[in-house]
Amino acid sequence: MTQIPDMKNFRVEPVGDGILHLAFDMPGRTMNVFTNEAIHEVEAFAEWLRTSDVAGVVIYSGKQTAFCAGADLTELSSAYDMIMAAPEAERDDLTVAHFSPIGRGFRKLETAGKPVAVALAGLALGGGCELALACHYRVMTDDPGTQIGLPESLVGLLPGGGGTQRLPRLTGVEGSLGVLLEGARFGAKEAVAAGAAHEVVPPGQEIAAAEAWIRSRPDASQPWDREDWIDPTRDEVLAVTGPTRENALKKTGGHFPAELAILDCLDNGVPVPMDQGIVAEVEAFKHLVQRIEPRNMIAVRFLGRVDYDKARRKEALPDGLDAFGEEVKAAMQGKAAELGDAGSAALHFAGIGADYTGDAASAQIIADRKPQWFVQPQGAIEKAALEIVQAGAAVARDKGQGFDAKHRNLIDYHCQQAAGYPVYLGGPFTFLDLYGV
Question: What mean pLDDT is reported for the chain?
Answer without folding.
Answer: 96
